[in-house]
Amino acid sequence: MASNDPTTKRRRVYTQIGDIFAVPLVAEQSKRYIQLVALDMSQLNSDVIRAFKKGYALDAQPAICDIVNDEVDFFVHTTVSAGVKQNLWKKTGKSLVIGNVSLILFKDTLDYGRRDGELPVTDSQKWVVWQINGNRKFVGILDDKNRNAFMGLVVPPNDVVRMLLGKKIPIHYPS
């Protein structure tokens, strides 16, 4: 029998393109911001966020225009609503300024992952690239343009926080 206790009900989180979220980085006594900029149907229908470089004091309240005009640190696929539910970030505003998402390029390798006992591949020659909602294109070895593409894996929200802290995620992703 279902409980009517409000503490047991799941909270539905609604997100929209343009939503901006503050991500507290407690160990650094700062926070950074991310913005939902697209939904990528070609990568598990996942959210695409951009993470901004500038850090702020935990009690700072920067203007939305200052946040979205900051330099972008990275783009990544994740589930924004899960990050809200896990209290990893909190919605702080919205801006229709999302940049030109058609120019964002992602990469992935067919060498990602390994079987038990195998060493991870450190130098892949099986790369694919794609743009948001686009078809994947096998490129083999990454050229200069594709080398700068963003990692195309869908990462859990806690790994987004780790990325904001400057950690490489995932650790065994080929160079």
Describe the structure.
The chain is an alpha+beta fold and about 180 residues long. The strands form two sheets. Strands 1, 2, 3, 4, 5 and 6 form a six-stranded antiparallel β-sheet that branches. A four-stranded mixed β-sheet has the order 9-8-7-10, with no helix packed on it. Helix content is about 15%, strand content about 30%. It contains four helices and ten strands; from the N terminus they run E-E-E-E-H-E-H-E-E-E-E-H-E-H. The protein has one domain. It starts with 18 loop residues before the first strand and ends in an 11-residue tail after the last helix.
Annotation keywords:
175 residues; alpha+beta; 6-stranded antiparallel beta sheet; 4-stranded mixed beta sheet
Give a short synopsis of this structure:
With 175 residues, the protein is of the alpha+beta class.
Span of the ends, CA to CA: 52 Å
Count of the separate structural domains: 1
The count of DSSP E runs of length 2 or more, i.e. the number of strands, is 10
Can you summarize the main beta sheet?
Answer: 6 strands, antiparallel
Order of helices and strands: EEEEHEHEEEEHEH
Q: By helix and strand content, what is the structural category?
A: alpha+beta
Number of helical segments? 4
Helix fraction?
A: 10-25%
Give the radius of gyration: 18 Å
- Structural shape: globular
Mean pLDDT over all positions: 90
Uncertain runs with pLDDT below 50, 5 residues or more? Answer: none
Portion of residues in beta strands equals 25-35%
